[in-house]
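Handover notes (outgoing to incoming on-call)

Open items:
1. NAD-dependent protein deacylase sirtuin-5, mitochondrial: sequence verified, structure written out, both below. Nothing else pending on this one.
2. Nothing else urgent.
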Amino acid sequence: MIVSRCTCRASHLYAHLSKPWGCLDMARPSSDLAAFRDIFLRSKNIAIITGAGVSAESGVPTFRGAGGYWRKWQAQELATPEAFSRNPSRVWEFYHYRREVMLTKNPNPAHLAIAECENRLSKQGCAVTVITQNIDELHRRAGSKNIMEIHGSLFRTRCMSCGHEAANYNSPICAALKGKGAPDPDTDDARIPVQQLPRCEQKSCHGLLRPAVVWFGETLDSDILIRVEKVLDSCDLCLVVGTSSVVYPAAMFAQQVAARGIPVAEFNMEDTPATMRFKFHFRGPCGTTLPPALTSVFNTGALRWYIMMIYWLTIKRNQHG
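NAD-dependent protein deacylase sirtuin-5, mitochondrial structure tokens:
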């Protein structure tokens, strides 16, 4: 059972993985696409857990691992309540930069294949739920409807005073941030006065806004975790797409499903700490491996043409607003 109060830190990951899960088959996961498709065709409730690897194929910076810096800071140094309290101008510059970058990116074939899978299977009475750690909204832009954004969204804000949360796609999000946020390590902080940073527009409030994302050290929303738990408890197939399986609580989602004997298929560039617990593992870029796996209607050539056409049309639509 998922605990209702979890942080996004992964400090207990390896201790958690070292615990016995009962009689697990530790044989190498299968990469048999035909066997996966057979299970996929019989599934009625599919949970798809996605991570940064999906968006990385759209050119989205991950700010994780070696070289994952904005100026001279890593995300773990900026995406915290303490960092925002000390220097809200710097943190807002960081998130303004990320928002502006995302406005130039488009869903890739993996996002589009997931959206098409949901659309097609929903007409057959099946459920597809996307549980994503990503905050970029590319799943929404690809056309997915049934999405749980467990870490929030770059394009939502929350008031520090009244707590009001709202979507915000303004570019720039406030006048003072226009032209700010350059990632070059030699760039000086803008030192924007707090009064000029994004402010709440609720009547008589005007409180300081923050990005409505889950920062390091913060707890995830218990309501969304309860919804995730229901999806995972009822799914008969789980896909893990582009995630390293090292960030809690998402790191334990698929493992809990696998422990119940439900098939789990991992699509990733490399093995993860959880790979050996899953039934399938498909190595390679998600945009290449996922589309052929999620079709039962098109042959591979037709599917590739279909996905690329949607991809091209999506890019054109976004370029024209």
